[in-house]
Design goal:
By secondary structure, the chain is mainly beta.
């Protein structure tokens, strides 16, 4: 694109997405309208989009119970099972489908192996400085609300 040429909508969307985002809320909304917070109402998370087209999403229960031993290799089966339920993350690349208002996460690796190699469609909207991502699931809708993390260089 030549200097001074107007930016396309996809470029504007991409520019707004680039950076690090902090989780504000993660909720599941059932077909009956019931809201569930799968990692608790105070879940923590970080979502990153890079200029190179890479992304990662990390979600965790805020007060996850610690293992008895500091060596993760010594975790009991119960501790491992609990930790798996308290964390969800994946990484890969991303693309934008402007007509659908969708950002597509092309998953390369995930804590849930069934997502590896998949395309995760997230319908997006910006609400002020927040990014809202909606995903359809077999049990209803999953909604994640994110706030941009200010750059230390700005």
């Amino acid at each position: 694109m030549s200097k001074g040429a107007p930016r396309t909508s996809v470029e504007d969307i991409r520019a707004r997405l680039i950076g690090a985002w902090r989780l504000v809320a993660l909720r599941e909304i059932g077909a009956d309208g019931k809201i569930v917070y799968p990692l608790g109402e105070d879940a923590r998370g970080q979502l990153m989009y890079s200029v190179e087209g890479r992304m990662s999403a990390q979600l965790a229960r805020a007060e996850a119970q610690k293992f008895a031993d500091d060596d993760s290799r010594e975790a009991t089966g119960e501790e491992r099972a609990r930790a798996w339920l308290d964390y969800f993350g994946y990484f890969g690349s991303f693309s934008i489908e402007e007509k659908r208002n969708a950002v597509i996460h092309h998953v390369e690796g995930s804590s849930f192996p069934n997502l590896n190699g998949s395309r995760q469609i997230r319908l997006f909207r910006f609400e002020g400085e927040r990014l809202v991502l909606d995903a359809e699931a077999a049990w209803g809708k999953v909604q994640a609300v994110w706030e941009k993390i200010a750059s230390r260089n700005s």
